[in-house]
């Protein structure tokens, strides 16, 4: 179970009680957050980030990543506060402060800010509103958003480029992109944006390249990868279904049997029999 309390439209308090949670995310806006308790592991195609209690970090917008959340050593549930720095607020700030157009940001998508006492104080100032969310007005949220921007700009010069690069994803090689990112369980509209296309042009281009619909291709691609991981890498089905982009095990098992003629569990049994026959 996970409780999400929206203090305002761009500020979120989250508390998860499950022992282990695996989720996938696509943030259209920059996300600045602090881990109040527990641990989170963030996996991108290039890097892995581990956030523990007290960690502060910022994730750049338009990033795909998988997140594994688990209780900390003290057993406390995963709790965090996040503030999303939306493009509208950043564009208004840039105009008011004469910040020039920035070049495309190409550095790390996630920056560790642990130990920044000013940002720690910023998040501490939000804690009283968790129990009194009605007191956190829209005006306060606007002020806090600007405060977060100011603090980041004071932290490092890199944040001017990080925050004020307003360029949207450009049209890219769709075939290569989908073969690289099919494991992420996000809406087609998000895939389309990240590939630099409208949803309609994404579907049209996809069908031309793969000669099938995105929905059918994604399911088959994920199931084929699952089959490989179970039969060749000897992973358990419970380890595989989230890894390849399925949300629940029963749907995964049903779709797997429909494509391959046996369930993931039956595939393991078959693999064990084959191994025994080879040995004997």
Structural descriptors:
280 residues, alpha+beta, Jelly Rolls, Arc Repressor Mutant, subunit A, 2 domains, six-stranded antiparallel beta sheet, four-stranded antiparallel beta sheet, 12 helices, 21% strand, ExsA-like_N, HTH-like, Homeodomain-like_sf, DNA-binding
Q: What's the SSE pattern? A: EEEEEEEEEHEHHHHHHHHHHH
Q: Gyration radius, to the nearest Å?
A: 22 Å
Q: Indicate the percent of residues in helices.
A: 40-55%
Beta-strand segment tally: 10
Q: Report the mean per-residue pLDDT as an integer.
A: 89
Strand content bin: 15-25%
Unreliable stretches (pLDDT < 50, length at least 5) are none
Number of domains: 2
Description:
The chain contains 12 helices and 10 strands. It is α+β, with helices and mostly antiparallel strands. It folds into 2 domains: 2-164, Regulatory protein AraC (Jelly Rolls); 174-279, Arc Repressor Mutant, subunit A (Orthogonal Bundle). Strands 1-2-9-4-7-10 form a 6-stranded antiparallel beta sheet. The relative contact order is 0.11. It holds the Pfam family ExsA_N.
How are the SSEs ordered, and which strands pair?
Elements: E1 2-8, E2 11-16, E3 21-27, E4 30-37, E5 39-43, E6 48-51, E7 56-59, E8 63-70, E9 78-85, H1 87-96, E10 110-112, H2 117-124, H3 128-131, H4 138-155, H5 158-164, H6 174-181, H7 188-194, H8 199-210, H9 214-231, H10 237-240, H11 249-260, H12 264-279
Antiparallel strand pairs: 1-2, 2-9, 3-8, 4-7, 4-9, 5-6, 5-8, 7-10
Helix pairs in contact: 4-5, 7-8, 9-11
